[in-house]
Design a protein that fits this description.
mainly alpha
């Protein structure tokens, strides 16, 4: 579940960042509710990437434990 949420956060951060930097209009669902600055979109992307990696590493660790047992 962490990986999925991380992937969605990465997408929102990426499209918001690209939209604000290159097209002067933020894209994604967050722009309908908030008006975050460009740095916040970059932070959202980084947080999403961290969640996705954490979820993937946890899944691999559980598979290794199950296989070893």
């Amino acid at each position: 579940m962490r990986g999925f949420i991380g992937f969605i956060a990465m997408l929102q951060g990426a499209v918001g960042f690209i939209g604000k930097v290159f097209f002067d209009k933020s894209w994604g669902i967050l722009s309908h509710w908030f008006d975050p600055p460009v740095v916040a979109y970059a932070g959202l992307f980084a947080a999403g990437a961290a969640l996705a990696v954490w979820g993937d590493l946890d899944k691999k660790r559980k598979q290794k434990e199950t296989g070893a047992a």
